[in-house]
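Design review, sub-item: ligand-bound model
Attendees: FS, YL, KQ
YL presented the inputs for the N-(iminomethyl)-L-glutamic acid complex:
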Amino acid sequence: MEKAGSRNLPGKVLADMVVINIGQILTMNPGKGPKRGAEAKDLGIIEDAFLAAYQGKVVACGPQAAFPERVEVLAGATVIDACGKVVAPGFIDSHTHVVFAGWRADEYGMRCRGASYLEIAEQGGGIMSTVRATRSASKEELVERTLGFLDEMLSFGTTSCEAKSGYGLNLETEIKQLEVIQECNRLHPIDIVPTFMGAHAFPPEFRHDRKGYIDEIIRMFEPVSSNKLAKFADVFCDVGNFTVDESRVILEEARKHGLELKVHADELENTGATELACELGAVSCDHLIKVSQKGIEMLAESDTIAVLLPATSCFLGEFPGAPGRQMLDSGVAVAIATDFNPGTCTALSIPLCMTLACSALGFSPEEAFVAATWNAAWASGLGGIAGGFGPGFAMDAVIFDTHDYMDVPYRFGINLVDVVIKAGKPVRSKNNK
Ligand code: NIG
Ligand code: FE
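KQ shared the predicted structure:
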């Protein structure tokens, strides 16, 4: 196979896919590691630009005027004229529970009438209701449903996502969920990073034997890791679920099996889960609605990324939600994601989450873009691979039907996605779905 650049004319790169006449390209100024502080506002914009790729990877990006001297377009290449529109890296949804059966609209109605998330869970609803449905569903049914959700995510510009198990809570169904993720990864253009979340709740079989279920989770790590079914392990460390001490035991065992760590932290109440995530060097620490001042300080000093889920806090009626502005001002590296699941967030649109991050959590539109692309990549184990446009990065891009990137968070509830490009191939366009 011919190598990129082997037939280059002097100073030129070969390209089999190019986007030309881009009004604004958001390169994210690829650098090292997650962005925080002033860097987290810098979109690395080039106006009137081109983007070129070879075999699914970016090879060049720069001013349109330099295109003829920098790029040799191969015969048969895909050429897209962006006609002055905005191009950004494909969104990376760094926190989803996309594999599940059933819905829970009844609970949404109960919450609207005043019941709390925990009260509903205590009556056998909540996560347990989805566990019952997911245990009964066949693998084929789950694959078909998940592919449908992934299609919807793609339509809103998501090109990679993280996906958790955690609606099985026994070996058989946890593995079934992870195999569904594996199969969907094979079948769908969206790249999916799998997370094992057996520690999502205590199943009814173990209601009176917490230690018994924790031992069971620890036993599940072996088949999960030896079959390479997950990159991360996650724990719901919160009231009504796993305590800080229980979570520590589980996460330390996960690490022994080669899994990287994530924590659902301080969503319902402050329990010190964020401090635990920082202490253990978790890759991310997610939710943080009730994070403490100490937790924010520890995040700012650590490499752990705060993944904020503004659609979840909004859907739960927790206004305004996590103290995003304070975290950004304290130098925390922040990502935003959907948390797509049937209980606490039925939205799977990252642009919607960007609007909510701006309007409710105090992000600027620029910070919202960085949080949904560059930092989201680092929160998903895709740092340096996706989420920005530098040589060697994945050619995962979105063309928006606008000339001003501000419109993406500003045009609240409207889908501005025009074309989605994954690994150098247009996989979705508004006119030709
Ligand atoms: O991230 N917090 C825990 N897990 C999900 C909710 C899952 C559910 O209610 O089904 C969340 O909000
Ligand atoms: Fe979640």
